[in-house]
Amino acid sequence: MRVPVLFLLLLSGLTSQASCFSGMIYAWDRSRRVPPDGLLRMVFYGTAEELLPRLRKAPALYLRSEHDSVSVSVHEVLKGEFRESMVALRPAKLLHAGAHYRLVLDALWQGAPDPLMERAVYGNEGTTFLVEEAGNRWTLELSGCPAFVKHSYVSYGCGPEQYAWFRVPAARAAGTAVRVQVSSPGSGAVNEYVVAFQEGYVGIGHAMCSGAFRFGSGRNYTVRFALVDRTGRQGSWSDPVAFRRPEPPDERELR
């Protein structure tokens, strides 16, 4: 088993099979392309979630380009259920199309009680966003009713990867994602997160090391879907869709 780096904050991509020990902050949209009025959605993974309480108190979070600096504020925080959370940052003004901006989050860990949080590793590629020309405002209404498709459950050394998969009919444009609201009728718990389309489907669950939704002891759940774009616009919620939690193949055979 690999020894974890003391406290490594990498604003870069993360694969589902990455080490389960490190703390990272990375761009949720791997393309790192935003419109002039877009949100920056960042994932706080693992031990980086310890920095979330400092977000609204940090004195200076900003974007820096070759020509100017733009402050950013916290638009919303979506708390995931398994070692990750999503933070949406809103620039204070329109960004210049064609420019590259680097996100600077130093203020989050400067002066933190734990000196390990003051260590950060930045890569120019992983911290930089390209601003695209403003595009058309696409419709964010679903073109049909979402439907459950299948379960997937794969066991790994550090734990399982488990998802419930849904078909969510939509005329998707670049940057369109899905806001998901999962409810557990038994416990009354409700959780929301933004997830990406994967080959036309939406997965509800978590990978081996982290994820938005972690199923508890209850078997039955409901989920609603709404389309969102890169500016934060949101369409109407779908009707709830009932489903059961994913289970290991040997347990399913006993049902």
Predict the CATH topology of the largest domain: Immunoglobulin-like
Number of domains: 2
Assigned CATH architecture of the largest domain: Sandwich
Q: Radius of gyration from the CA trace?
A: 19 Å
> Strands of the biggest beta sheet: in what spatial order?
1-3-6-5-4-7-8-2
Order of helices and strands: EEEEEEEHEEEEEEEEH
Please characterize this protein's 3D structure:
The chain has two helices and 15 strands. The longest helix is centred in the middle third of the chain and has 4 residues, at 124-127. The chain is globular, with a radius of gyration of 19 Å. The protein is 3% helix and 37% strand. The protein folds into two domains: 24-131, Immunoglobulin-like (Sandwich), CATH 2.60.40; 147-252, Immunoglobulin-like. It has an eight-stranded mixed sheet with strand order 1-3-6-5-4-7-8-2. A four-stranded antiparallel sheet has the order 12-11-14-15, with no helix packed on it. The chain is mostly beta strands and 255 residues long. Keywords: Signal. Residues 1-18 form the signal peptide. This is Lipoprotein.
Concise structural overview:
This protein is mainly β and 255 residues long.
Q: Which descriptors would you attach to this protein?
A:
255 residues, mainly beta, Immunoglobulin-like, four-stranded antiparallel beta sheet, 2 helices, 3% helix, globular, disordered N terminus, Lipoprotein
Write the layout of secondary structure elements.
Layout: E1 24-27, E2 33-34, E3 40-45, E4 62-64, E5 69-79, E6 84-91, E7 100-104, H1 124-127, E8 128-131, E9 147-156, E10 159-167, E11 177-183, E12 190-195, E13 201-206, E14 220-228, E15 241-244, H2 249-252
